[in-house]
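Form 7-S
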Amino acid sequence: MDEFEQYVKKITKNLPDEEKEELREEMVGHLRDHVKELLIQGHSEEEAIRLAIDSFGDEGKLNQEFKRFFFPIYKLLRFVWSVVWTVAGLSLISYFSMEYYHPEFDNGIDLYSVWVTMFYIASLAGAGEVMHHSLQGEIKWKWILNPWLFFMMPSLMISGLQTTMLFTQPERYQDGLWLDLYAVAIGGLVYVSARQLFNGLFLEDTKGKRGVVK
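Output:
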């Protein structure tokens, strides 16, 4: 039954080779046994195959669940990946901004500032990830846990409040320093983008869609 082979192949996509083969054999065996039972109950072969596959569930979700099981540190790796990309993004924006406004200065990236920024971002993002994880299963409206909403809304609110300083203290935010007021929003955008990129690269939905991985 080629339908089973294709279905199970999608479920085991990108899993470790040894576990992949064992899972394929086991799942195909279960599916075929289930079809035999359904045929005995009077279902047509086509209907029995469909019902057997439906009983297993969506192949994309199953693939992600198996990846979480076989790669238990993926959240830590995703966190580190996202923080590094965020620090890199903010550092480059700062560098090019200073090069634009003050090309006469030596605008090299200071390593001390990079480490301080990394600590700051890791602290904020880490707190957000812990909260995001703790709310899973506890909150009724799952759309609230969408990473774009969950991480970006607080970032935009903070930067929105800081915008008032452009009017109350305009002298402090000349020559590109106004970007400091939006560092949280920019950092949040880069962080969530990197987070979702990680999901897309390593936890890709087998239907070709980018699933929201919690």
